[in-house]
Write a structure and sequence with these properties.
The protein is of the alpha/beta class. 60% of the residues lie in helices and 8% in strands. It folds into two domains: 127 residues, Rossmann fold (3-Layer(aba) Sandwich); 258 residues, Hypothetical protein af1432.
Length: 406
């Protein structure tokens, strides 16, 4: 599927702004079937009459604003991708946290960025709505929920006067959560020079934003401790996730991604295999047999999952994170981390960092050189992003870090 068969609804109650957007998007008439609506009421009428892949709404509309409109779209037409156009970064960050939009676009809108955002979001939406995944999720009797402590942490981080002390007090209310966060902080993947004994110390060393993926991960794994997931598999997924998360963060920083994208890369890296735990929790021995059969036949696990379940751990991991309302960059990095070319993106993103970090974590040393599993690294994808040469640099960083820990 490409951007060429997308149906897009664009909403703004300012006639001049709507006309200006229509002129700017004229060049994409062959790519999309577009309809322009003045205000939320007209948009809801259009949605009731026909289906749309994407709805783009301006936040600052009178009466029913863009946020309220997209909340209605989320409830009534959940298959439509939702994008919100916001005047300021402050407004964008505020609304994004409410989970009504898959992605936000800051004004003045870059038309090329809008086109890429819509295409990527629609591709992600269709990946997460494919029939095999829907059928699989329909069989699963329980999914991990978004931890309450994580939501409280996000609420604190939105405050202009967010403080390490309040975050530490927040986490201290849950002794199990605190213990799990400290276990993750003190893992070798962070490479901290000292042992961290409390959350306040962890926050001061790593920064408040770095606690987000740790709190979310700790909350998810707390829920799985009483599940049917074998302890060895849970430990392997956690250790591998922490390694990939740490390296995703380093690659994202090395490539000059924004602070938000660096945080997204780390969180997506840590949770990129969470779908394996969902499958193991529900299918138990059957999933274990699939894993063992793939290993014995030296076949990619992804192919074995697709054959057995008509969906993969990457699909179900992306679905779960999408269900939680996490930012689109995180969801697409998890859903596409094995086949990034399918997203058709042209720019480096957290997906690039997670894909490369996962390949590095699976690479094996042969005669003093790291060799990649061909099924783990998509060289054509890196070539499309003009990052083929950077793979050697990332590999050198990884090898140097490994030597330093020996």
């Amino acid at each position: 599927m490409s951007a060429n068969d997308l149906r897009v609804l664009i909403v703004d109650d300012d006639p001049d702004a709507l006309a200006r957007t229509q002129r700017l998007l004229r060049a994409y008439r062959r790519d999309w079937e577009m309809q322009f609506c003045s205000g939320a009421e007209a948009a809801l009428d259009a949605l009731s009459a026909s289906s749309y892949d994407a709805v783009v709404a301006d936040l600052e509309m009178s009466g029913v604003d863009g946020s309220e409109l997209l909340a209605c779209v989320r409830d009534l037409y959940p298959d439509a991708v939702r994008l919100l156009v916001c005047a300021t970064d402050h407004s964008a960050n505020l609304v994004r946290s409410l989970g009504v939009a898959h992605r936000y676009l800051a004004k003045p809108v870059d038309v090329g960025l809008m086109r890429d955002s819509i295409a990527r979001a629609a591709l992600l939406g269709r990946r997460l709505r494919k029939p095999g995944l829907k059928a699989l999720v329909g069989q699963v009797d329980r999914l991990p929920s978004l931890p309450d402590v994580y939501l409280a942490l996000l609420e604190e981080l939105r405050r202009e006067d967010a403080e390490v002390g309040r975050v530490a007090d927040l986490l201290a209310r849950d002794v199990g959560m605190t213990a799990k966060v400290l276990q993750l902080v003190n893992s070798s993947f962070f490479g901290l020079p000292v042992h961290v004994a409390d959350v306040r110390h962890a926050a001061s060393l790593l920064g408040l934003n770095a606690l987000k993926p740790l709190v979310l991960t700790a909350g998810v794994f707390q829920q799985l401790e009483d599940s049917r997931v074998p302890a060895q598999l849970a430990s392997e997924v956690l250790d591998h996730g922490m390694e990939v998360g740490a390296w995703s963060r380093r690659i994202a920083i090395a490539e000059g991604l924004s602070r938000d994208s660096v945080d997204h890369a780390m969180l997506a890296g840590v949770l990129h295999d969470v779908g394996k735990l969902v499958l193991a929790d529900h299918f138990g021995r059957n999933y274990a047999k699939v894993c063992l059969a793939a290993e014995a036949a030296k076949l990619p696990l992804l192919a074995a999952e697709q054959d057995q379940f008509d969906a993969t751990h990457a699909d179900i991991g992306g679905y779960l994170l999408g269900l939680w309302g996490l930012p689109q960059e995180i969801v697409e990095a998890v859903a596409f981390h094995h086949d990034p070319r399918a997203l058709e993106a042209q720019a480096l993103s957290p997906l690039t960092a997670v894909h490369a970090a996962n390949a590095l974590a699976h690479a094996k040393e042969v005669d003093g050189q790291l060799e990649f599993d061909a099924s783990k690294i998509d060289r054509k994808y890196l070539a499309r992003l003009k990052r083929s040469g950077r793979l050697a640099d990332w590999t050198a960083m990884f090898a140097d870090a490994q030597l330093a820990t020996v």
